[in-house]
Design brief:
20 strands; alpha/beta; Rossmann fold; 18 helices; 2 domains; six-stranded parallel beta sheet; 478 residues; globular
């Protein structure tokens, strides 16, 4: 089966979050199952810098954007396993400092940039004779591809649309509608229209043959007003072609037995190196060495409301009263950065913050912490809790989306438990979840058993890829 991935991110060439990680792993896993895979992304400046070698596969393909007659070049390179990656190049749109924006904010013309990218995919397929059986488009940035396919733009191909986050609609103002390249029948309430604008996310949902999201629980949650972001009614109406497939983890990268970033390797058979990783983390972050005998929690996250940062700030005094420590790596909204900087000044021996992102430090936090906090308001899948399980770092999560699907609480199945869940999105609930974790930490035998169960869980991409392949076969067969 020939599968074309249309995506705004793919690791390691261009990534701003979980989408890039997924797109860097799922195509490889499907290739391992015998699929013929191609990936297409914009030719960002960063992608061209990271790609070891590329050549021009097609030059000056014509493309109309509203009243402008433009051209696009297609570059070809390779990802791991010799998988081809095609890059849509037009420098006015993609030769920029960041993927979606800079620290000063998102680019004002992002909708136009990704309309152009999406509209370049059909001529790319034609010029290169790709002939995909399935086109998997991802999030609002490529939602338009599904509507273009409904117009017959990629003959013989079936469209599957993946929702990684319902919170971003990709709204196109009414005055830019002509740039979409769609017939009038696509522009009403039954099509892309969303409160006077056009939603590229909605285009993907309405016109795909199948819709998939990144965990079974999230597939249910987005059918509710709380998590549907104004499209819950639409999602309920397509529930017969909606599927939830849990994201996998790339254990080539996230594995304490082989991790090049941590001071000591370890495994379920020989977990002793984890203590050395904790000692290394405490020293690197300047925290009290006495925390070797007390629980240390970690967070690697964007500092935004969705990730539960406010809950952590509100709960901090009560958490530190338990004698625990906390290490946070991330960046985001200024209000939460300042909240956490304030905590660091009040608790310098027990709270450490590093603003920004550091791949090596992320690995050291996952390996060196005892607990891993993921108190998200919503979390379509989440990967950090899956990584933490592999590293014997017991997760404390809010029971939402993929967090609910991947962590087993003692209150559910004590003999199978791998972490702790809380339900209300309140600081008090977070404190209750952490309190139960700290009590278990004080019972070394129970704690060791929970750690080892998590380390032995298998959330590899192999299982998820097989589910995707079954979905693709079902889509092609009708």
């Amino acid at each position: 089966m020939k599968v074309l991935f249309a995506t705004s991110e793919v690791s390691p060439l261009a990534t701003a979050g979980g989408l890039g990680d997924v797109m860097g792993s799922l195509p490889m896993a499907l290739a391992g199952l015998g699929c013929e895979i191609s990936v297409v992304i914009p030719a960002y400046r960063s992608a061209l810098e990271r790609l070891e070698e590329w050549n021009v596969a097609a030059r000056d393909l014509p493309l109309t954007m509203g009243k402008r007659d433009l051209t696009v070049d297609i570059l070809r390179g390779e990802l791991d396993m010799d998988l081809p990656v095609y890059l849509v190049r037009r420098d006015e749109y993609f030769d920029r400092e960041g993927i979606y924006g800079t620290e000063r904010g998102e680019y004002f013309d992002n909708p136009e940039r990704f309309i152009f990218f999406s509209r370049a995919i059909p001529p790319l397929c034609s010029a290169l004779s790709l002939g995909p059986d399935i086109v998997l488009a991802n999030d609002w940035e490529t939602g338009l591809v599904m509507a273009l396919m409904d117009q017959g733009a990629i003959p013989g191909a079936s469209g599957v649309f993946a929702i990684h986050n319902m919170g971003y609609h990709g709204l196109v103002p009414a005055e830019a509608v002509e740039k979409l390249g769609l017939a009038d029948r696509y522009l009403g309430m039954e099509g892309l229209e969303f409160y006077g604008s056009m939603s590229l996310l909605k285009a993907g949902i309405v016109y795909a043959r199948r819709v998939v999201t990144v965990s079974p629980t999230y597939a249910l949650e987005i059918q509710t007003p709380e998590f549907g972001f104004g499209l819950d009614g639409l999602i309920r109406s397509v529930s017969g072609r909606l599927h939830g497939i849990l994201n996998g983890a790339d254990y080539r990268v996230w594995n304490p037995e082989t991790d090049e970033y941590i001071v000591s390797s370890y495994s379920p058979r020989d977990p002793g190196g984890k203590a050395l990783c904790k000692e290394d983390l405490l020293r690197a972050m300047g925290l009290d060495p006495g925390l070797m005998k007390r629980p240390l929690a970690g967070m690697v996250t964007r500092l935004v409301e969705q990730k539960g940062c406010r809950l952590v700030a509100e709960a901090a005094d009560r958490l530190f009263e338990m004698g625990m420590g906390l290490v946070v790596l991330g960046s985001g909204e200024k209000v939460y950065e300042e909240m956490f900087l304030g905590l660091q000044s009040r608790y310098p021996d027990r709270f450490a913050l590093r603003l920004g992102f550091d791949t090596g430090l992320a690995h050291r936090i996952v390996a060196g912490s005892d607990l891993f906090l993921v108190p998200s308001l919503y979390e379509p899948c989440g990967l950090t809790q899956i990584y933490s399980l592999k590293y014997g770092t017991v997760p404390v999560v809010r029971a939402t989306g993929g967090l609910k699907d991947t962590v087993i609480d003692p209150r559910e199945k004590e003999d199978l438990s791998t972490g702790f869940k809380f339900h209300p999105f309140r600081a008090e609930a977070l404190v209750e979840g952490v309190t139960r974790a700290v009590r278990t930490y004080g019972q070394p035998r129970l704690w060791q058993e929970m750690m080892l169960r998590g380390m032995n869980e298998d959330f590899s991409w192999d299982r998820s890829a097989r589910e995707y392949l079954r979905l693709f076969e079902m889509t092609v067969s009708g």
